[in-house]
Amino acid sequence: MRILAIGAHPDDLEILCAGTLARYAQEGHEVVMAVATDGTAGHMVIKPPELAQIREREARAAAEVIGAEFIWLGFPDELIFNDRETRLAFVDAIRRARPDVLITHAPDDYHPDHRMVSSLVFDTSFIASLPNIETDHPAHSVVPPIYYMDTIAGKGFHPNEYVDITATMDLKRQMLRCHHSQLTWLKDHDNIDALEFMDVVARTRGFQCNVLYAEGFRSADVWPRTPAKRLLP
């Protein structure tokens, strides 16, 4: 299968679903990691033009850890909207990746960019199948199932599927460590150790499904996105 995960910011996929993406890659599936915004709001000292370059390099390095393809959309951090230009960019990214499975943010996560990206992925993954909406890449042949990844800290999120990431937890940590600038920002702005934060959530989800570490997901339970078989690893 081809798996496309779309995160709002350059560290979201690592925090919320990298263990699952690593499992997909280890099992021979093709993984594509896409980042919607340039992450330029996320630092106390480094200014946006320089920070955008840093954060793109960090995100690409994280994708390389598991051999994933990488798509950088580069919309301004905190200023992404569900408008014509953005919709068409998402449509084309989905057509480029041609996924069998989509992973993105929960619709009710805490951050406005997370919620906007969730809405964009839902809308444009349908539009991507319509040949009369033209972009650089041809229409996708399917409307792929969507799995919403956990919210930050798991707040208000009730998974209906879990993935055991015990064997890929070290890869998940390695991927997050690529985001040096963001690890500093999260400590300065939110007073959290992002690696410890990520570990605690994965351990909590592991308790819920009787493994050491896990990631939780909720499927978009609407037609035509409900497959008759399990698609998560």
Strand content: 15-25%
Percent of residues in helices comes to: 40-55%
- Summarize the biggest pleated sheet: 7 strands, mixed
Task: List the total number of helices.
Answer: 7
Q: What is the global morphology?
A: globular
Q: How many beta-strand segments? A: 7
Give unreliable regions as ranges: none
Distance between the termini: 11 Å
Spatial strand arrangement across the major sheet: 3-2-1-4-5-7-6
Write down the overall mean pLDDT: 96
Q: Quickly give the structural class.
A: alpha/beta
Give the helices and strands as they follow along the chain: EHEHEHEHEEHHHE
Rounded to the nearest angstrom, the radius of gyration is: 16 Å
Q: Which helices and strands, and how do they pair?
A:
Elements: E1 2-7, H1 12-26, E2 30-37, H2 48-65, E3 69-75, H3 84-97, E4 101-104, H4 112-127, E5 146-149, E6 161-164, H5 169-177, H6 180-190, H7 194-209, E7 214-219
Parallel strand pairs: 1-2, 1-4, 2-3, 4-5
Antiparallel strand pairs: 5-7, 6-7
Could you give a short description of this structure?
The chain has 233 residues and is of the alpha/beta class. The protein contains 7 helices and 7 strands. A 7-stranded mixed sheet has the order 3-2-1-4-5-7-6, with helices on both faces.
Descriptive terms for the model:
about 230 residues; alpha/beta; 7 strands; about 40% helix
